[in-house]
Amino acid sequence: MFAVTGITGNVGGVVARHLLAAGRKVRAVVRDAQRGSVWAGRGCETAAADIGDASALVEAFRGAEGVFLLVPPNFDPAPGFPEAQMTAKTLRTALEEARPLRVVYLSTIGAQAKQPNLLTQHSIIEQVLGGVPAPITFLRPGWFMENSAWDVAPAREKGVIPSFLQPLDKRFPLVATEDIGKVAAELLQESWSGHRIVELEGPRRIAPNDIAQEFSHLLGRSVHMEAVPRETWEALFRSQGMKNPEPRIRMLDGFNEGWIEFEDGEPGSRKGTIEIGTVLQGLIERASS
Fold it and tell me: Is the peptide bond between 167 and the residue preceding it cis, with omega within 30 degrees of 0?
């Protein structure tokens, strides 16, 4: 049996679907038991557990052959990342008590970066989970292609997409959530010892200008990217309600300056199969429904 957290979201749902398709038993770990009803209807066990409740997580993970760990994103962490520190301790306690046979933790590209940034939250959790004796795979995907969901409306309505990834012709490591979930399910079904890192990106690197070109093709209108000046970021993010925008700004700097990257660069990463155009088409269709 495999315990899957984040099952009601994009990546966790894909993990569960692939495990079920492989004939594996799945335990859906959800914050609210009612949210697991859909998965119960698909033949899953359900367990109610919040990511911050160690006791509930122990029960959710107990007896599992494998556990898929997904931590809800926090885009506006407090200085010093106390939320990630607490989550890391909770997860370590739960894993040490429940003793699943193996774990796949959804981390991020750049978790090894030394400069503090938004992704440091995963660096903290990786470091703490490094003390857990169970076999653990730290799955480090690139920038999610689905982040372009925010681009659909401006592309369709104005033909101009604001971009924080810059320069606009620089190719970045993007990956589809479908590829992430598929690979995570495959990893869960493998056997290994100790701790390992698997880095994942799509079949080719994508520039912001490439995304605009794909939108132009799919929408049948001219679409182009427009770089958002860096000096405006802090005021913009604060106007959106962020209290501590510095980590997000530094994350974007890391991608743009190249110090958020896979440990062995592009040659060392595993490659997915889903192209950006396929993801954008899905995003456009969902926005239209």
Answer: yes
